[in-house]
Amino acid sequence: MTTECQKHYGEGRRRVQRLCAGFLVFSFLVLLVILLVWAILRPHKPRFVLQDVTVYAFNASVPNFLTTSLHVTISSRNPNHRIGVYYDKLDIYATYRNQQITLRASIPPSYQGHKEVDVWSPFVYGTAVTVAPFNSMALNQEQAAGTIFLMIKIDGRVRWKVGTFTSGHYHLYVKCPAYIIFPKSRATSTPMQVSATSGDEDGDGDGDGVFKLQMVQKCSVAV
């Protein structure tokens, strides 16, 4: 009995070992195929460009508070030959010295095919947003120089599509530098006030408080 039990035990153990070895080999082959396909396709991150910014309001007349209204145009290009991109969620907003100064605006979900270019033109705005005292001081200094440096950011989730295969979600982070150069009449030592309603300083009704800046500024992208 003892000999037969040992024999059955040995056969069962060898069977388990063969199954484990087969599973490991199969898993290795699957991973190898995935890596080879990924290396052959050579996926690249989407490329974002900040095309222009139209300033409708930028009011820092009240200390430590900022009202902003911007219309931005951003393009995205998929540089891949065989990989599509699903933009499932995209939120865009503006920051000043790492402090968010506008609400998040949502960009509609979309699919971007191979080598395709998408262009989005959302509005981002914030009304009487509290600004940190040290940022308020820096804002006044940059105002005197006539140039305000903002960062247009996009946070989102994307998926890659290769043939019939669609990956899981990846986080997308985009940062677009925006140098807002105000007309010379705005670069004064008084608190800054630019708006579509009150910016018409000469009273001619031409709405010169609104101005548009062409950027064509490349953005940094992290996935």
Walkthrough of the structure:
The protein has 223 residues and is of the alpha+beta class. 24% of the residues lie in helices and 46% in strands. The strands form 2 sheets. Strands 3, 4, 5, 6, 9, 10, 11 and 14 form an 8-stranded antiparallel sheet that branches. Strands 1, 2, 7, 8, 12 and 13 form a 6-stranded antiparallel sheet that branches. The chain is elongated. The relative contact order is 0.19.
Keywords:
six-stranded antiparallel sheet, 223 residues, eight-stranded antiparallel sheet, alpha+beta, 2 helices
Mean pLDDT: 84
Task: Calculate Rg over CA atoms.
Answer: 28 Å
> What structural category do the secondary elements indicate?
alpha+beta
Q: List the helices and strands in order.
A: HEEEEEEEEHEEEEEE
Helix content: 10-25%
Number of DSSP-assigned strands: 14
The total of helices stands at 2
Strand content: over 45%
> What is the CA–CA distance across the termini?
63 Å
**Uncertain parts:** 187-192, 195-207
Described by the principal axes of the CA atoms, the overall outline is elongated
The main pleated sheet reads as: 8 strands, antiparallel
